[in-house]
Amino acid sequence: MRRVANRPWTAWMRFWFEPVPAANLAISRILFFGLLWALYLPYDYRGWGDVAPALRQPIWLFEDLHLPFLSSGALGVLQAIWKVSLFTSCIGLLSPVSMLVAAALGVYLLGLPHNFGQTYHFDTMIAIAIGILACSRAGDVMSIDAIVARWRGHARRTIASGEYLWPAQLICVGVSLVFFAAGLAKIWTSGSEWFQSDHMAILLDRVQYHISDADPLVNWGSAIARIPWAANLLALTTVAVETAYPIALFSRRLRIPLVLAGAGLLIGIRTLMGPTFEQFLFLNVFWVRWDRVAALVPARFRAGCPVGGSAVAGMAGERS
What we know:
The chain has helices at about 1-15, 20-40, 60-65, 70-90, 95-110, 125-135, 145-150, 165-190, 195, 200-205, 220-225, 230-245, 250-270, 280, 290-295, 300, 310-320. The chain contains 17 helices and no strands. Helix 2 runs antiparallel to helix 4 and helix 5 (about 95-110) packs antiparallel against helix 6 (about 125-135). It is mostly helical. About 30% of the residues are buried. It folds into two domains: about 25-165, no CATH class; about 180-290, no CATH class. Helix content is about 65%, strand content about 0%.
């Protein structure tokens, strides 16, 4: 009876804190912050400082915390510091400080465009993910900090630990809830009419008139809207993928197809409808168990791996 009663608690703790190699989280850190840095490097937030005060509609975060609307010059300094912190978080230089700065400034800069009457859906989880990593030990290995500590003789031996799993798991839970909430909202508000009616066909036509934050990459939407049941099938697939997405948290067999389907959904939205979800796709790096990937890499290639060959070899060795 006691053994049966302890099973849910054991499963719960294993979900969050199963010991994994430190490099598992480090590789996700490098990819995530590197991709964010490359994406946001050309982006300029200074234009928001020139928007007339009459157009401001502060969201609760800015209103409750009394966050100021900075001038263009101040935003230029702020964004420069933020982009540097994204890069130093990627390479692991002063990792705790870099990720904390990236999280704090990211909340402000990513939240700023939401204060002018338009709500965006692609960057909220990004800010949350950076905050989660700022509370983690993602810079323990594969970082400048680790190299400096080794030079000084202060390097500590890292062992497989749950400390390197829970941040990735928490981010994946957040991603799953975003997808599930989107699917549930469609079913809750519209029911089967969301995919049985002409709603999707109308959306595919409507986005051709420059109403989104970006235009569709191709103009196939109107053609698809004219094919009988094609738009309905797209709508049904969207709801099915979104509502089923959390299953990826618990099923290894369905994880890969569900995560790939979610990525395909975001790519399809960007291609046919316009809204930009590139940064949301970056969160998929946390779904990957890099220690399992390393175990599939032939031994002769591990030592030559450009991103911490010894760590990758160590992951594969520990896995085996």
